[in-house]
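Researcher: I'm preparing a figure for a lab meeting and need a structural model of a single chain. I don't have an experimental structure, so a prediction will have to do for now. The sequence is pasted below. Please return the structure as tokens so I can convert it later.
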Amino acid sequence: MPTVAPLDLDGHCIAAVFLSDIPHFALADGTVHRLDNGHKQVTAHDGLLCATVTEKGDKMITGGEDGKVVAVSPAGAIEVLAEIGRKWVSSVASGPQGAVAFASGRTAFVRFADGKTKELQHPRTVEGVAFSPKGMRIGAARYNGATLHFPAADGKPVELEWAGAHTGITFSPDGNFVVTTMQENALHGWKITDGKHMRMTGYPGKVKSLSWSAKGRWLASSGAPAAIVWPFQGKDGPMGKAPLELGTRGNTMVTAVSCHPADEFVAIGYADGMVMAARFADQKEVLLRRQGKGAITSLAWDRAGRRVVFGSETGDCGVIDISG
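Model: Understood. Here is the structure written out token by token.
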């Protein structure tokens, strides 16, 4: 039976992650808590809006209401990577070769490892940024679609159009597809080589959490009373295929998903604080954590795939050891 080590914090958890296998919890008030031979904390921002982890898993990159982009080390060291004044940093992404992307208003910024920063202007607000796994390329989610940039070059960006507000963005691990979350209850995708569209609809709620499986064969999503898992094995992705529905629980909405780092199953967090795991092959389910005080906002696995860290909107956080 999985064991749960709880950590009760005061406030909304934006991101629960492992940094060098140490559990970290970034809260909306700007504090970052960690469980490292006891409970420790540092202040990264005056109001924290977004957070992600570097590819190596050795730093958390955060953006705040104070206009700062910060790197937090596993030991709690704070390094300010960028300051843009009194503007909110609404989205951050970590990329190859130490690059970081972030968004504020209509501008996407790319900060290279040498500290140089490039600004990429857009006609409407940039709601989300992500790096492609192949080469130095970023995607920006915006109103009516997404824009793909090669920030190290001066070429024209690629515009991917689809009517509506696009609020987040992710690339498939093989770099062949880009998928956005939308203000309406849907995902939209494009095949990058030919711009073919992929409509992923039918959600009763907004999709706020996405996670690719280890080899990129599946894309798990929140926004329904089950984890909706789209198949991406074929050359045209999920077009014409039905998704898996894992961990269905009546009318209780799935609020967070995180695929296992090696095997084809997913951790699923719910609006009532419950956490389950479900396998893609046979849809077998295992209860990882009973209901809690608030909706699960963030889930992440450690590198060995034995522990899951979770955060919630009310601050009841913790670590689940699935090996018992």
